[in-house]
């Protein structure tokens, strides 16, 4: 059964040509097509030449967006002793030890990022089935298993994101809000591209960059000129 396209989407699709857009032009068009009645995210969907079923072709890392995400990030920290006080003093929204683990096990999920110190990870591990599907399970690669909780809290509050390639080799990540200026969105998008470049899996052979599409949450996909973005220099 063919899904019916709304009049709104038909009008937006008519604005987008089947071509590679220069990065700044693509971002200006993203803003023009962000017509929903709420604050839409700016999303990137990046197809890479990798097969994540092989361990040396997996991509999972973090990016610190210079212009932030535009979202308020609620951070929870599971720790012990003085690290509990440090987390609380550093702006964590929720802090606890074994009692917080128990609350999460019972369904508490009022946070966007969960940080844990290494010494509590054996207990946190039992939450894997609950946290994993939501992308909330702390991990060293994601920067969410650390004793330096103050720095981790500050980074995630400021716009640090964890992302990974899905099983088809596509990275889906928010890189700001459609209400940001094109220049600010470009800085974030370029930072994301640089991060993916630096973290190229060792097993990735041949053409690494296949395609980059951007869109507002409720907007049409806009194809970005991959080479133009890669060649871009931002002071």
From TrEMBL:
<dbReference type="InterPro" id="IPR023674">
    <property type="entry name" value="Ribosomal_uL1-like"/>
</dbReference>
<dbReference type="GO" id="GO:0006417">
    <property type="term" value="P:regulation of translation"/>
</dbReference>
<dbReference type="InterPro" id="IPR028364">
    <property type="entry name" value="Ribosomal_uL1/biogenesis"/>
</dbReference>
<keyword id="KW-0699">rRNA-binding</keyword>
<keyword id="KW-0687">Ribonucleoprotein</keyword>
<dbReference type="GO" id="GO:0000049">
    <property type="term" value="F:tRNA binding"/>
</dbReference>
<keyword id="KW-0694">RNA-binding</keyword>
<keyword id="KW-0820">tRNA-binding</keyword>
<comment type="subunit">
    <text>Part of the 50S ribosomal subunit.</text>
</comment>
<keyword id="KW-0678">Repressor</keyword>
<comment type="similarity">
    <text>Belongs to the universal ribosomal protein uL1 family.</text>
</comment>
<comment type="function">
    <text>Binds directly to 23S rRNA. The L1 stalk is quite mobile in the ribosome, and is involved in E site tRNA release.</text>
</comment>
<dbReference type="Pfam" id="PF00687">
    <property type="entry name" value="Ribosomal_L1"/>
</dbReference>
<dbReference type="GO" id="GO:0015934">
    <property type="term" value="C:large ribosomal subunit"/>
</dbReference>
<keyword id="KW-0810">Translation regulation</keyword>
<dbReference type="InterPro" id="IPR023673">
    <property type="entry name" value="Ribosomal_uL1_CS"/>
</dbReference>
<dbReference type="InterPro" id="IPR002143">
    <property type="entry name" value="Ribosomal_uL1"/>
</dbReference>
<dbReference type="GO" id="GO:0006412">
    <property type="term" value="P:translation"/>
</dbReference>
<dbReference type="InterPro" id="IPR016095">
    <property type="entry name" value="Ribosomal_uL1_3-a/b-sand"/>
</dbReference>
<comment type="function">
    <text>Protein L1 is also a translational repressor protein, it controls the translation of the L11 operon by binding to its mRNA.</text>
</comment>
<dbReference type="GO" id="GO:0003735">
    <property type="term" value="F:structural constituent of ribosome"/>
</dbReference>
<dbReference type="GO" id="GO:0019843">
    <property type="term" value="F:rRNA binding"/>
</dbReference>
<dbReference type="InterPro" id="IPR005878">
    <property type="entry name" value="Ribosom_uL1_bac-type"/>
</dbReference>
<protein>
    <recommendedName>
        <fullName>Large ribosomal subunit protein uL1</fullName>
    </recommendedName>
</protein>
<keyword id="KW-0689">Ribosomal protein</keyword>
């Amino acid at each position: 059964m063919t899904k019916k396209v709304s009049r709104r989407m038909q009008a937006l699709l008519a604005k987008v040509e089947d071509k590679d857009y220069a990065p700044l032009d693509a971002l200006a068009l993203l803003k023009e097509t962000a017509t929903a009645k709420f604050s839409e995210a700016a999303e990137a969907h990046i197809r890479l030449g990798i097969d994540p079923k092989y361990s040396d072709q997996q991509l999972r890392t973090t990016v610190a967006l210079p212009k932030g995400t535009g979202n308020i990030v609620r951070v929870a920290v599971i720790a012990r002793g003085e690290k509990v006080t440090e987390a609380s003093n550093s702006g964590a929204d929720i802090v606890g030890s074994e009692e917080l683990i128990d609350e999460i096990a019972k369904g508490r999920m009022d946070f966007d990022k969960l940080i844990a110190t290494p010494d509590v990870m054996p207990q946190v591990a039992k939450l894997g089935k609950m946290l994993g599907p939501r992308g909330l399970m702390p991990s060293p690669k994601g920067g969410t298993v650390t004793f330096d909780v103050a720095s981790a809290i500050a980074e995630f509050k400021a716009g640090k994101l964890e992302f990974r390639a899905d099983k088809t080799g596509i990275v889906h990540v928010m890189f700001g809000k459609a209400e940001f200026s094109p220049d600010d969105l470009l800085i974030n998008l370029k930072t994301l591209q640089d991060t993916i470049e630096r973290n190229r899996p060792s097993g990735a052979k041949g053409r690494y960059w296949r395609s980059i599409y951007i869109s507002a949450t409720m907007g049409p996909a806009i194809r970005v000129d991959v080479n133009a973005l890669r060649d871009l220099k931002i002071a």
